[in-house]
Amino acid sequence: MLQADEPDVLPLWFTDAERGWIARTVDPELAELAPLGERALARLAIAPGSADIVLVAPRAPELPLARRYAAVAARPLVIADAATLGVALGGRRPRSVTWFPSLDETDLAGSLVALRGAFAARLGHAPALGALTAETVAQLTWLLVKQLLPRDPREATLTFASTSETSERPSSSLAVLGTDHKVAEVVRRLHGAAGTLLINSHSRPHCGILRVADGPVGLCGLASGGAGGRCIDGSACYFGEAPRVVMQDLRAPRVLFNGCSTANIGGRRADYLPRAAMVSHAALRSQARELVGNVRLVLSDEVDLDWFLAGSALGYPPAQGVELIEAARRASGREVLASALYFGDAANPAWPAEGVSQGEVVIDDDGAAVRWASLDRVLVARVDGRRWAELAAADRLHVSGERPSHVIVAVIPDPWGDRSLVLALPRGEHARGGERAGALTLRLRPLAEPIDRALGETLERAVEHVRWLEALPSFATVLAGASRRLEAELVQLRRIASSRMNLLMLRELLDQVWLDEVRAACRFDDAIIDEALVRSRQSWDVVVEYAHRLHAVPSATASTCDGCGSFATAVDYTDHASVGIERTITGCGHCGVVADMPVCALRVRILSDDLTYAADRVTGRVEITNEDDRPRRVALGVAIAMGGELLPASVARTTVILDGGSASTFAFQLLPAAPLTQFLALRAFLASEGAFGVAATSILFRPNRIA
Ligand SMILES: [Zn+2]
Ligand SMILES: [Zn+2]
Ligand SMILES: [Zn+2]
Fold first, then answer.
1. How far is the CA of 177 from the centre of ligand 1 (A)?
2. How far is the centre of ligand 1, averaged over its atoms, from the C-alpha of 245 (Å)?
3. For the segment 370-415, what is each residue's pLDDT rounded down to a tens digit?
4. Of the ligands numbered here, which is closest to the C-alpha atom of 590?
5. 3-state class of 234 per DSSP?
6. How far does residue 274's CA lie from ligand 1's centre (Å)?
7. Which domains does the chain possess?
8. What ipTM was estimated for this complex?
9. Reduced to 3 DSSP states, what percent helix, strand and coil does the chain have, rounded to the nearest 5?
């Protein structure tokens, strides 16, 4: 029948049993057609155009249908696959490509990447692409006819379902469903949505999962809708008997389902999920005539929906809007290869957009200003020139604005012109009720130097030092869990530093993050010194606890004893377990171990010339030197080993902040509660950013010496 010479007739194949389904999902009048009956459409919902091509692979079962579709739409038909595309296109530069993937496609993700690559090689970019496919040839005719039929005006309403807190963002005129709604209501409203449906949730190929207030909502791809708590072949459904959204029962003519594999149409594994169970096919056999999904796993984010909405408000058709999603994912470092795919005629018009406000742009000498007269869920603006997005990608764009903690800003290149797109998303209080009337102005300014994102090295080293100390019996209690806590903070701050989700006041934010990092790195320094001082009252030799871990680098450097000025040896050690832990131990033949320090830019020295001692009093000064190129906070403590309790008037403990390249001294005064009468060690402990060191000298307390 498809071979008949009537190219302007598009078949619609269904059985008598399917009439009810066709009436509901395609058209009630067409459902009444007798076998071989025809109905002429006065006006088509799709526009003809010589720059809008129809693409189908050679010898494919869907080729005759694609030929009819192209003829009806008065569009050029290009018969090619990715390998032959270049030749088949000839000199054509199509504006849009309506693609018929193979009906027995088992690797759509791979085919999509190959096809986009072939177009990019030819045109320099991927075209606006729309795919038309179904489980069977018959069902493909349903989808094709849906592209042609006039649209219902009710399609203009919008429903937005996402896993974010809906109360955190202005909902505008949208119906927004999210974590603060209940399962039953979400199911009812998703089924009832008669306009555009935007969903952001986790998904498997056959089943989406949207977590809301009282549990997860299933978005089921099965024709049975998971009745009786049964999934494929009678296996148990994750959602049990709970109410769920049955994808094929959706009323919405336009559906964007941003989750993993929501555009998967079938795979190679015969033992796996049947094609009919895929959420993509289920949505396309519902009333939906258009669908946006992802062909594979993605780091999907609600912001993808916002970009799509923003694109729709700017007039981008869905086949172009998905490219905005891709550009946003690339700009935020989430994706490199395309995953979002639009099902529908590539020349279909822009989807209705609500909750989007467009900003005014003023370019001046030092940058650009974007002003939104009123706030809404999504704020978008188009700025001439790609360079703004390129600056953002190179960390050389400074974006400033009011109340930065309440607005998220992204800048991406417009895939469809020499422009940049600015997106601003108000959050929290700023986004609610009364404040929506407020305006927002953002200033974009190029930076001469890129923003430094290299954060975390200091804290990373601190984690290593603290973990090392934590392993020593002396510090096991006081530092219990400390390295794990610091590591969690390290992860958090590195996430912030690497995030490309928000450009607003990024440099200022990272400056603050750096301060937080140093504060975290120093968090346990005081506790380390306090513990060292307490333990020093009794016999305490911490070196014994780690000596077996250390491995001497077989070369000792000649050094001078800080205590007596004699020849001393400095031996470098590395740790057997933590390669980053390096220490230098300096020994003097007369004074013993005079320094046991981590290899770092800090130095501590007991000034022997200033030292005075007697059985009931030891005074002197400790010198701390910072050879780092930045300020360092140093916790210091001085103790006499085995010296017992000190009287309260003692000065044994301090914290100093030293500028880079500077030195300072600490005058200490130790007043032992019981007189000292033997050969003892005086120790000065240092802790900075988790690194712990000690300088020492020996004192012989003679019984007759009382000050
Ligand atoms: Zn299920
Ligand atoms: Zn997933
Ligand atoms: Zn010495």
1. 21
2. 10
3. 999 988 889 999 999 999 999 999 999 999 997 767 899 999 999 9
4. 3
5. helix
6. 13
7. 16-148 (3.40.50), 154-159+176-343 (no CATH), 356-446 (no CATH), 457-521 (no CATH), 525-700 (2.60.40.10)
8. 0.59
9. 30, 30, 40
